[in-house]
Specification:
Elements: H1 6-16, H2 38-62, H3 64-73, H4 78-91, H5 95-103, H6 108-119, H7 124-134, H8 140-172, H9 178-205, H10 211-232, H11 241-249, H12 253-260, H13 270-273, H14 278-285, H15 292-311, H16 315-322, H17 327-355, H18 358-370, H19 382-414, H20 420-448, H21 453-468
Amino acid sequence: MNSVPAETATPLTLEISQIASPPTALYPTSQPSLPISKDAIRTSLRASTGDAVLSAVFSLTTGGILLSNFLVELDASPVVFGMLSSIPMIANLIQPLGAYFSESTTSRFQYSLLTHGISRPLWLILVIGILATSWGGVNNHQLVILTLLIVLFTHLLGGLGSAAWLSWVAMIVPRRLRGRYFGLRNSAASLTNLVCLPLAGLAVSHWYGGTLQGYGVVLLVGIVFGIVGIGCQYFQVDVNPQLQNTYVAKLSQSEIQSNATKNESCEISESICLPQPPTSQNQLNSGIWQNTNFLMFLLYFGLWMLAINLSAPFFNLYMLDTLDIDVSWVTIYSSLQAGANLLMLILWGKLADKIGNRPILIFVGILVAVTPLLWLGIGANRLDLWVWLPLLHIFCGGTGAAIDLCNNNMQLGIVPIKNQSIYFAIAAAVAGASGALGTTIGGFIVQFAESGGLLGLFALSSLFRLAALIPLMFVQEPGG
């Protein structure tokens, strides 16, 4: 099992050691009398970090620049690129159904094993398809269709389990450590991208059997890492959704008020033992659609995902196709972006714990909004290849780290504990639908626009990103 690096684990470990054992009622009934030790808490967080590292290898081989280059080699159209980016977001529409199923189970781990444990090995079908193409049994068009089908089915299965997984992690990670822990966890994943992506890019571009075969070999390695990553979840403290909801439902207003005066380190997760801000009890007793703060966050999140995905899937296409930059260069740029993401995540996490997530989202959101405009002057000349493209990717990595981390923490903060996975699923479904709409619109604009369609799309995306920040001004962050 991978553990948190020693040089970064110390501050986290010290704070976790102050947290007492949680109530066993929140955990599976198979061990009702066993307390959860502080060592188990630390083991859970380290296991989750190990899962993030191994899953990062899987993710970089089944998406991103490597999969985009694979489709470029197959002469896929811009509409295919739009579909490739929209399918994962459309699959998020199934998350409410997955959350409903997960709330009727008795183990977060077993449910995650059922969903993600099946979805990742499905990519082996694409490896077989690449071999069949090399032998002449499958043509390029059929391989493109097969790729899209695998992306669809694997993300549908992943969508069934995503909300349950997020609710599981939310129960394990103490509230006051969320910024730092998720910063640390995401940094470990970014470091993995930083190291592995250039190696994978070189392996694909220099494979003796060609780039298609090279991608097949790299994909096979990524699948193995992804399956091992699922195994890391075995070492996380399991959570019984039935008992979690029963425990929260029994909390009275007087109990919540009395808990507010107690030591803040009373249980494994402060999201359990500490009260939400004053509005949270009302949120607990009211339905999702009466939770105006959550609905405002949904509006912001949906508009933001639409604006981002108008252009995000097409930056790689612009470099690989329009500028005709070699894939090894593009993987180096992506590694620089991952490196900047790595360095900034821990900083953003600590800052979010101090000043809150919303101020960071507003400030950095403005920077992210103007980023597509910076692509308008990019070309394939030596200065852009060696200076401006690296700097642009470093800038995107640093700002993207803040957006991803703070959006996640913001969502964890405003969602009540009872039926938590359903809230997460609804947010993912809204974001998925709007993001898919954005990529679909972007794909058709690029496909049917005249020369300069990509650059015009980048400018349009910048305007939409600025507009999407307006609802965020009205979201109230608990404790912010």
